[in-house]
Amino acid sequence: MTEVQTASMVKPWEGLEGRDRHAACMIAAQAGDRSAFDVLVAELSPLVWHVARSGGLDRTSAEDVVQTVWLALVRHINRLSEPRALAGWLITTTRREASRVQQRGSGQVELSSEITEQLPTTDPSPEHEVLRGERDRQLWAAFHQLTQRCQELLRLTVLAGRAEYRAVAEALHMPHGSIGPTRGRCLNTLRTLYHGDSGS
Amino acid sequence: MRTHQSDDELMSEVARLVNVLDPMPPGLVERAQFAVAIDSIEDIEIEVAQWANTNMLAGVRGGLPGTITFFVGDLTVMVNVTRTGERQRIDGWLVPAGAHGVEVRVADHGSTATTADEGGRFVLTEVPRGTTQLLVRMNAEQSRTVVTPTVDL
């Protein structure tokens, strides 16, 4: 890519939000604007991250997958003819890449060891204050027993509170009306697993 | 007590755990932006290699030098990193062997390039430390370039 815009020009995505903003970035990136691509990486990496983590990869492998997905996009940027479909393309590509890494047998992590690694945060840490001990441990363990799709949907729902993620439903290829019920079923399963683990 | 937890309450608990326990690693965005900022990337056929043995790599990523391996298709690259004062020396071995081009990009420090010998071995000295990416240009196939995700060395 070559830099075709000067810093003094108003960027076409300025003032836009969500999918409109990212579609404008895609068009600019396809025309060679690297700063547009950097905006996409900055704003949509959390989406890629959480899809990769839903696929059961450890954090190190998930980071590699995030970088691999962006390298794939920069390489194939002109093959995406529909800029508004970017989030969907990212989700599909990330799922495929995460499953490729899993099949190689690297990057898989035993949940128990990962929880041990993550939960007893080193003191003094701001995270320590937020954690609520055994209940959190059980809920996080239950969360990881959910199907990949449920983990993905719940993680992306967390992201959906932010403006740039309003297109999550469409990106997940789910009919608009079915997101709520599906999410409800995932939460019911989570509730059962959570209470089952607590022995109540 | 928990049995009466509503979907909204449970969802907000999940949100808190996801945000606290599993946020993106700090600096990931910057590393990804660096990883894609390869000159003329649209003109070359790239393949992204996978770092092997992530357990060992976790140590390397914590800043300790050592041996790391990456692979893609039939190509395997072993890299040994040795500290030399503020900088480091990178010894590498490519399999299958061949006089492939090797480039090491370090964020904010440009890049260092060399060519492997016929046995597939290469050495780069005085490499700055930082967010690092390796590129291997296969000599037999002009357009085939292998790149790695970045690693902090």
TrEMBL record, chain A:
Record's protein name: RNA polymerase subunit sigma
Lineage: Bacteria, Bacillati, Actinomycetota, Actinomycetes, Pseudonocardiales
A Pfam family assignment: Sigma70_r2
Family: Belongs to the sigma-70 factor family. ECF subfamily.
Keyword Transcription: yes
All copies of domain RNA polymerase sigma-70 region, residue ranges: 40-99
Positions of region (Disordered): 101-128
Swiss-Prot/TrEMBL GO biological process terms: DNA-templated transcription initiation
Keywords per UniProt: DNA-binding, Sigma factor, Transcription, Transcription regulation
Annotated GO MF terms: DNA binding; sigma factor activity
Residue spans of biased composition, Polar residues class: 101-124
InterPro entries reported in the protein's UniProt record: RNA_pol_sigma-70-like, RNA_pol_sigma-70_dom, RNA_pol_sigma70_r2, RNA_pol_sigma_r2, RNA_pol_sigma_r3/r4-like, WH-like_DNA-bd_sf
TrEMBL record, chain B:
Organism of this sequence: Actinophytocola xanthii
Domain of life, source organism: Bacteria
Protein name: Carboxypeptidase regulatory-like domain-containing protein
